[in-house]
Write a structure and sequence with these properties.
de novo design (two linked rop proteins), 76% helix, Ta0600-like_sf, UPF0147 protein MSWAN_2407, UPF0147
């Protein structure tokens, strides 16, 4: 269950990192989030780390609306992760 959620999140984050219309700092945060999801730690720790990063950048005034929506999708997906 959790791995499916992480896979879906990774796909969305990959899309953000490849989108050149998204500012570099947001793409960097998406890449960092992907790396955290790939680590071999407890699912809840990985999810909460990524939620923290993405929550912060989702409030960036320079983020395009489509990228903000994708980030919100990832956040809602990760909030359902549990052990």
């Amino acid at each position: 269950m959790n791995q499916d959620a992480f896979d879906r999140c990774n796909q969305i984050l990959q899309h953000i990192t490849e989108d050149t219309s998204v500012p570099r700092n947001i793409r960097r945060a998406a890449e960092e989030s992907k790396n955290i999801l790939a680590k071999d730690e407890e699912a809840t720790i990985r999810a909460s780390s990524v939620i923290s990063i993405l929550d912060e950048i989702s409030n960036d005034p320079n983020i395009p609306i489509h990228a903000r929506t994708l980030i919100w999708n990832v956040l809602s997906e990760l909030e359902s992760v549990h052990d």
